[in-house]
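Illustration: BZIP domain-containing protein.
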Amino acid sequence: MLYQLFVVLCKTFGTDLNEENAPSSPLRDVYVSDTDSIFDKPRKINLKKKLKIEKSKREKYRREIIKLKKQNKYLKSKNTSQQELVKS
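Result:
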């Protein structure tokens, strides 16, 4: 948001927009629309975004673990039944 404001001001006053004049901020791509509250600061918005990504990753891995547990249980029972057939 600050970067966009910087670009508009540079165009308004006719200054060159180069790497020396550009602000070097990791929060350059943080937008107010990314958050629920308009009163959040850019750092808090960025942290909320990272937290949301981490939560979704954790949920994805949790579902994958559940799926693999079910598959493991199925394969164990299948293996047991086939061993019984071989013994007979």
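Reading the tokens back as a structure: The first helix runs from residue 2 to 13.
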